[in-house]
Amino acid sequence: MQAVKKPSLLESSLKDAAGGALVTLALAAVMIGMKVDVASGRGAELFIEYRWFAVAMAVVVVFAGRLVMNLFFWRTDNSVAAAVSGLMPKSKAGSGLGAALKPLLLIVAIALPFALMFWLGARGSRQYIDLAILVTTYVMLGWGLNIVVGLAGLLDLGYVAFYAVGAYSYALLAQYFGFSFWICLPLAGILAAFWGIILGFPVLRLRGDYLAIVTLAFGEIIRVVLLNWYEFTGGPDGISGIPRPTFFGLEFTRGEGGFADFFGLDYSSIHRIIFLYYLILIMALMTNFVTMRLRRMPIGRAWEALREDEIACRSLGINTTNTKLTAFALGAMFGGFAGSFFATRQGFISPESFTFIESAVILAIVVLGGLGSQIGVVIASIFMIGGFEFFREFEEYRMLVFGLLMVVIMVWKPRGLVSTRAPSVSLSKSAKGISADLVQEGHG
Amino acid sequence: MTQWNDNPVLTVEHLTMRFGGLTAIDNLSFNVGRGDITALIGPNGAGKTTVFNCTTGFYKPTEGRLVMRRTNGEKYLLERMPDFKISAHAKVARTFQNIRLFGGMTILENLMVAQHNPLMVASNWTIGGLLGLGGYRHANVDAIEKAKYWLDKTGLIDRADLPAAELPYGDQRRLEIARAMCTGPELLCLDEPAAGLNPKESLELNELLMYIRKEHDTSVLLIEHDMSVVMEISDHVVVLDYGVKISDGTPEEVKNDPHVIAAYLGVDDDEVDQIEEEVGL
Ligand SMILES: Nc1ncnc2c1ncn2[C@@H]1O[C@H](COP(=O)(O)OP(=O)(O)O)[C@@H](O)[C@H]1O
Ligand SMILES: [Mg+2]
User: Fold this and answer.
1) ipTM of this predicted complex?
2) I need a surface site. Which of A137, A261, A337, A417 has the fewest CB within 10 A?
3) Domains with residue ranges and CATH for chain A
4) Disruptive mutation site among B49, B101, B105 for chain A (greatest number of A CBs within 10 Å)
């Protein structure tokens, strides 16, 4: 028995969308619909090219866009956020799963190549092991960046620079001095850490957006230098013929003295792929191990405290400059390790592999996984990198689908997939995780 | 009764702090006696927090000297030191007027962060700790014990694993004091520790401060609005108004100082003169 009937959501939304479309029509008719051009045929005469189809497109897009926004986002009582949350499993269920998830994932990761070989044979599984290597590389990069962004709260948009430094360190050391992978791996890490400190010094005074911009620029500078220093780095041609890693001196080659020969196996190119997979898996697990240990040590706690409140840190006698530098250097070092792995896996590198989009993907993995969460990075990597490959068939639409999926996830879980922080030390055994709503994201 | 002049832990000499055209502190000198609870009082905007910020290195004073004398005889010129070194070496700890806890970390973690420097040394700057050497493990256990001690003293022990941001306001204030004490300070600077506390919490705070002073050889410098608190627990009161010291003495002396009465009640200058005449100044 409502006296004044409130206009229904659909009705009001339609009205609003129609209004928007009308405004668009008025504006687009002149701004998009007519284009003055110089006629090439009849001298230099001006004429107007009419593009009514484009106008129609614009109007339809605005109408549909406003309608969707009205229906699902702008009316709080029926927001997509609530709808999506309703569809998704509750986070409570996730946390119970979480405890079992880690060992399970580890077992799957270790058994993966053999399981694939068993089911698909050497030929069929190669593609999947390659994908697993890629995913694991991103897991390692994500874990490395997590130190800087997730723990220390420093927004680094140029992380790929350290990946590049690592890759080029190995490639150049191998090219000029003939060093092997195992010598270059630590060197690449050290060089990347060194560059992390070089970058760290000038940017430490900056916070938030400024820090992000400078790190972004740094990433681009490294790439542009690699691109233009032709005599040293080969510029856009890149560096090819980067030596493959050996298994304790055994090369993965056919015939006498190779890996297969030594172990009495039939030669197969899959051996090297599997070796590479375990190599990156071990490197990634080392990264995780070190990070988890550091979290429970004074330096790790200082990183997190820095993210929470820098001024309070200084009042407690913490040298925030050094603390930030160690975070930068350590994150960079793991990036460098991953970079030299990338170089040895590909056998060829060029600056094209180190564009900003790489930094963005790694950062997206960290944010999507939940800042500071190690397991979150794994899930996000599998989802993002795996998903990316999975959607490859859709060609140009995959970015669109992918972007949409990410939006949905961030609406559903704004603090990332794993949004609890485990305390680094506790008195009682049953200490609970800390909700991400209480955890700061850092200011710089 | 001027023990603060005989054996000061902190000497503030001709401290001046200007922000552009605004002189927040003007030629301020006073002493903080060793083992005393010294109160710095004054109306809002008098420059009390600014004195703290100069003492703890967050502001560099425009002019003046701040001398910290530690019990072991070492002397530090605070105005020349970066903030984190003042805490680490000169052993001056502080709390903030608007509480600054590590909200997303547990209460215990907050106190562990406060023991960063000794733990860093014990872990051989992380390397020893990473390799699992025994020295660090012992130091870690000791640090947890120290944290437990202060949690016990502040009544937070049963909530040690809760995130600091979830604590009620009064408990946050006490946690901040506990955190400052975990750095092992010789001078503890508290910026309005009783602000927003209910009478019961306020009483507990007084007891805590008395305890700290008695058992830990820590001198306390506190900013306070609540005159009853000041009168009850402080040995020495310094009164600021518009960046100028208008009174300095025992609580009894300060309470009867006409300048203080005028500043606090907002009386005209004429009336101050009148009162001054009456009391024979
Ligand atoms: N960083 C700053 N920049 C400019 N002015 C400041 C700054 N800090 C304090 N002030 C000014 O100094 C004066 C004293 O402030 P403060 O020390 O906070 O007073 P209170 O005694 O209430 O703690 C105020 O007028 C304040 O506006
Ligand atoms: Mg103040």
Assistant:
1) 0.87
2) A261
3) 9-72 (no CATH), 96-440 (1.10.3470)
4) B105
